[in-house]
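User: Second chain of the day. Same drill as before.
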Amino acid sequence: MSKPMDLGVCVKAYDEALAALVRCIDELHEVGMAAATAYWDFVRREEARRPGYENRTSLELSCYRRGNHIEIKWSHIKWFGKTGSRTKVRTPLRRGTETFSYHENTLKAHAKEWEWDMVKETEQKMAIIRQSARHVVRAIISMRSAGKVDKKNLLGLNWGRDTGGVEEDEHAEIDHET
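Assistant: Same format as last time:
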């Protein structure tokens, strides 16, 4: 009689692995927020030194998290109207789907000369975070799927469950009486 596989240990390991992957997402988000904060601190310092709206940045960097998804994006800001009643319009910039980063020419077209080096450096960091986060999220999805398979097995809904003392071997020879 074959004994059903005890996968309870695996389910616990999946749960631990999921917790570790979520910690990775937490850390990637913290690093992204630190880079975004450093960028905005730099922009505020420079804008304070450079009077006039024409010296204000026209780029906006945002970094936020929804569940296990980290969103890091650049937007172009355009102002309309007279001073005192101006309206801000935010247009997201397009990013390469394969490279996880914004094209340098796109960012440079909207960046002020004084901020370009910081924009370039920040985007290099953010591209790495985007790429890492994508792989971690895929790993989370895979671990959840593997855990579901093993939980089904533990409930007896899948392979490896006890067959009531009867060995089932699909390759066994059948003795037919003639």
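Residues 8-154 form one domain.

User: Great, on to the next one.
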